[in-house]
Amino acid sequence: MTTYGLLIDYEYCTNCGSCQVSCKEEHGYPVGKTGISVHADGPWRIDDDNINFNYFPLPTDLCDLCAERTGKGKEPLCVHHCLANVLYYGPVEELAKKLEDKPKQMLIVPQFMPREARGEFVHVENELDHRKAAHIEVEGTGSSTFGAHRHDAKVGEYSEDAV
To answer: What pTM did the predictor assign?
Structure first.
């Protein structure tokens, strides 16, 4: 059985919203729900000459890759209406080959309503569960900074080197 997915070239996404609007309208989703959502990373300065600012169109758990349309040989609406032409639909094996063509791409295989499809998530303990993040107090500087670290000591023991 062939698995289908979306190849997303996020280097050129402009956040026009065409993918979101077409999906929302086609499926009749209410306000606040959609099958694909564009997320922003940035802007923030990498160095004096470069700024990081990327948009990422990401399928949500409501994405079924427009099963009715793709069943008729058409592409999903988000791909069809993408003004920047950065969304591609097809068999995962074929899309994966395109990943080598350039950086700033990602391959996603959405799963429609995963709880119904796969059941509830059940946590299973493993040998790495003893690793916990440490709480760190930070003095206010007018800007936000967050940090966490792992430790390899026994649970509840933190060394000065780890902090």
So the answer is: 0.68
